[in-house]
Amino acid sequence: MSRRTLEIILGLLESWHDVAHPSVPADHGRPDEYGHRILSMDPRWHAGSYAELEECLRFMRSQGRQQAYRGQPVGTLYWHVQQWWINPPRAQKMVPSRIIGYKLTANPRKRAPVWEYKPAMVALRHSNAREQKAVWGAEWVDAHWEQVAARCSKAGWTANGRAFRGLPQLPAESLKYERERSVAV
Questions:
Q1: Phi then psi dihedrals of residue 106, to 5 deg
Q2: What dihedral angle (degrees, nearest 10) is formed by the CA atoms of 21, 24, 26, 31?
Q3: What is the pLDDT of residue 5?
Q4: pTM for the complete prediction?
Q5: 163 phi/psi in degrees, rounded to 5
Q6: Which of 58, 167, 168, 179 is a Cys-bridge partner for 49, taking CB atoms 3.0 to 4.6 Å apart?
Q7: Closest-CA residue to 148 (of 139, 157, 160)
Q8: b/e per residue 126-155 (b: at least 16 CB within 10 A)
Q9: What is the largest CA-CA distance in the chain?
Q10: How many CB atoms lie within 10 A of CB 169?
């Protein structure tokens, strides 16, 4: 496929955890007659190609020992994708946000920055997880997207009543955020 579809798949993987597991309670569920909320997925899950990506990852896992990509078993690449984007545990940590001043060091010609720290949710990735192998796994998904789409349409697969989409798509909110980020840089 193209570089653009790979970027979309990487965008889906990077936002996967936030969409599949929202960290803050939201009004995604609708109340029933007793006032209880019926749980439902984040609207971005249905707007993007997350269900299709999930099916591609299932296919990737099933091909784990039968195929290799870039000299690595596909199962290894699947593990790196899982550990890098899908399942890294999250924790709140204090991270440096901006420099608020400078302090003197032992060397009078050098000054060290003084950082302001703010709490943020960060991914605690496995020590053996490698980003390069996770990107190779995303490339494998990109290369096999159409094969999985054909396999799913032949089997009559639907995600929430919707047939497998042809090309991967990001939700509109993610595209808007991506445009704002590219303008800011």
A1: -65, -30
A2: 90
A3: 84
A4: 0.70
A5: -70, 160
A6: 168
A7: 157
A8: eeebeeebbbbbbbbbbebbeebbeebeee
A9: 72
A10: 18
Q: What residue spans define the domains of the chain?
A: 3-88+129-184, 89-124
Could you read off the pLDDT of 130-175 as tens digits, one per residue? 999 999 999 999 988 888 878 777 777 665 556 666 677 777 765 5
Burial class from Cβ neighbours inside 10 Å (0-12, 13-18, 19+) for residue 80 reads buried
Q: What is the DSSP string of 148-162?
A: HHHHHHHHT-EETTE
Residues in the chain: 185
What is the pLDDT at residue 104?
84
pLDDT in tens, 93-117: 999 989 998 888 888 888 888 999 9
Separation between Cα atoms, residue 94 and residue 124, nearest integer Å:
13
Q: Alpha-carbon distance 92 to 139, whole Å?
A: 31
Residue-wise pLDDT tens digits, 42-57: 777 777 688 888 888 9
